[in-house]
Records
---
Amino acid sequence: MQKLQLLAKRAIPALILLYISTLLAQSAHPLLIKWSSQLSYLPLIALAIAGLIALQFSRSRMALFSLMLMLPYAAQLWPEISWLQLQAPPLSLLLMACMVWLIWDKDRGFALPNALLSIAQISLAAAVIYFVFQQLSAQPLDWLANLIAWLPQLHLSAFSPLETGLYAGLLMIALVRVALSPSNNHCALFVSLLLLPMLQYPGKQQLLIGQLAILTIAIVFLIGVIMDSHNMAFRDELTGIPSRRALMQYVQTLGKKYVVVMADIDHFKSFNDTYGHDVGDQVLRLVASRMTKVTGGGKAFRYGGEEFTIIFPRKEPGEIKAHLEALREDIANYQMVIRSPDRPAKKTKQTAQSRSKAKPKPTTSSGKQSVQVTCSFGAAQRSQTSSEFMAVMKQADLALYDAKKAGRNCVKIRA
Ligand SMILES: Nc1nc2c(ncn2[C@@H]2O[C@H](COP(=O)(O)OP(=O)(O)OP(=O)(O)O)[C@@H](O)[C@H]2O)c(=O)[nH]1
């Protein structure tokens, strides 16, 4: 469900861009036509810039995509380059097969062995689709025409049923990858696949449609890289929630009234000793996702280790206590389903003690196990004596210490 939400969040702006560029191209406004002939190199420049920036961020697949996308556009721009003028199968279909292969691969960089491997893989993908195309084009394909009749006729209608079917099939294969791993990078690559057939749209607006498609792709690539670098800077790598750096940025925006909460998972060292660090990581992720669901206007950050910070802007302790209690209960009652640890638990004195605290359930036949953890919370508000953020945080830390001393799994507030 979370993956679907993420995919929708990333794909919807891209689809809107796709729709606008298609509408623009189909309108064939005189200004656009004029612009199209005067700035015919602009899409190549935009792709080159997007590719170079992608390279700077080690997005080698995006850089390769940019390079490959130049080919069908160059074929339109310079019809005299005969080796680019593939008719059956169209060049963009071969490129799409290569790109779908790459989207299932990973960013390998351009070191010689990896570059050779990528070239071998994409050549194989192109050869396979070439072979499939040759085989199928000799067959009667009424069944395929019927099968794809329901597809939106937006920009594929100008292609033969076989081409449309192969484009759609390859897109579905890529979509599975994006749905399984909906990163900014994959969404950007997928959008370029969606737009790729537009580069070989037959008809008199071919160049204009190709230009708008490429500019859209370059923009989507740049947005993908910018969003990725923003995430790298401000999201915690393990849990995906805002990091300590994001917290420090956020406190600049706080007014004179706010509450700082420090939260800490109880007995987490014992938990790690019992289940191993990998399971500890899974639990950290699950706890983090509960922390972000805090109600009452709180915003959660991973402060570091097994510690989290929650800020309630414009609130007083009395207003947040119930929300913290609800969060504490929510975490304590949450049956966290985890993949079973690969390595056996260490048999230490501490381990035996922690078993009762972490309440493990027997491993199920699916190799999954459910565990529960608790958290302690300490809160403090900005006051005359603690007006600096770090001073308020120190007070919240002391309150957390009070909560630990009081037996853990509770909320303490420093006046
Ligand atoms: N798996 C995992 N463990 C972490 C991570 N960061 C910190 N830890 C562990 O968290 C544990 C924190 O232990 P302590 O500070 O001793 O506290 P505790 O065992 O939670 O005990 P109390 O806080 O007193 O309830 C250490 O064992 C760290 O190794 C992480 O990113 N992943």
---
Amino acid sequence: MSGLDTLLPVTILDPWPAPRVLAPVDVTVSLPGSKSLTNRALLLAAIADGPSVVRRALRSRDTLLMAGALTAIGATVDTSGDDWTVTPGAFDRDAAVDCGLAGTVMRFVPPVAALSTGAIAFDGDEHMRNRPVGEVLAALRALGIEISAGDRLPFTVHGTGSVPGGEVTVDASKSSQFISALLLAGARYEKGVDVRHVGAPVPSLPHIEMTVEMLRAQGVAVDTSEADRWTVAPGRVAPVDLAIEPDLSNAAPFLALAAVSGGSVTVRDWPRHTTQAGDALRQILADMGCTVSLSHDGLTVEGPESLNGVELDLHDVGELAPAIAALCALATTPSRLVGIEHIRGHETDRLAALATELTALGAQVTELQDGLEITPAPLHGGVFHTYADHRMAHAGVIIGAAVDGIRVENVGTTSKTFPDFASFWSGLLPGEL
Ligand SMILES: O=C(O)C1=C[C@@H](OP(=O)(O)O)[C@@H](O)[C@H](O)C1
Ligand SMILES: C=C(OP(=O)(O)O)C(=O)O
């Protein structure tokens, strides 16, 4: 397993005493790059028709796993600097791909591996064997690819060097990544790819918009004129030269610091136009009573005297749910978060994990099939378990900022998308520990 332990500070205690914030904070932060943008850029670069550069790439477990996967199948990825270079190569060898716990690696790489003449074996962390991928494998089989084993990790893709492509139907109600996966590789299929979704509504639509926007930026023609249908024309993928935006979903715990302390937090370089789901934080935090402003300094959130509860459908932005749920547990009125059954298939069953951990600290939480009802109650200290889920750790540190005696178990799991998160977080709060 690529634990990438070198990314983790060795001195972080486990469980980690989360810094308590005793006065309003007033900080400005620059955050690492977006996981979703970095991994799409790397993948497109590997199937482009010339060398690429991914500027200010996120250096984290998920992105290094993507770089490792693309290198294993035949691309050359230089991750030594802040700007990563990618040189496409022949996909002509047998290889093993470690997906870790990265959905973007497990779902996005197999459709590219299908272009190889080698046998590409995929596996990952133990929990990754529970995360859904069968719909992508079934689609690839329908497009003529041989894949051994069933519908979960581990599996092996046996490419023949080319993929006919064409029409395929997918039920993407469990993850938008099933659609993105097929679209990202589709231009390199002989007939392109024409993907229809049939099933309950697709979650996380901004992530599909991100895929489509990035494909178009590389000169790929994508037709989205019909609902639940995406058509990618066959053709070249132009070399990538992209500067990665800060990860707006990972901004959630930082902006939450302003919300819970009644202080002010500015995240630099917040993009004016973006397809990142995390941009929804602006409206969500305003709904909770924060003052939110976007200026040339970045996005500034000022916390209110007391936080409002909210009723939200997070279907489009489910990756924000853990941080929002933590804020709801610290609000003064009840909240209801719905539309997020699919996050039971994320790094852990996030609805069950949030209900368990918030309840253990004294919150009143009802777990719904597709969400959470959270009624504020006085919280007390304790260990906040993270289930190897970076966003559960973010939820834990948010609670810990506002409640005495919170210790976050395995805070190092944040390395999935944020290098050295715990040190960065405590460095923002000097003298307040
Ligand atoms: O395509 C992507 O980069 C992602 C899509 C979303 O997945 P789901 O559609 O499975 O929620 C999101 O939650 C995940 O963090 C990243
Ligand atoms: C769901 C997430 O990740 P993944 O890309 O592994 O699906 C996430 O980061 O919240």
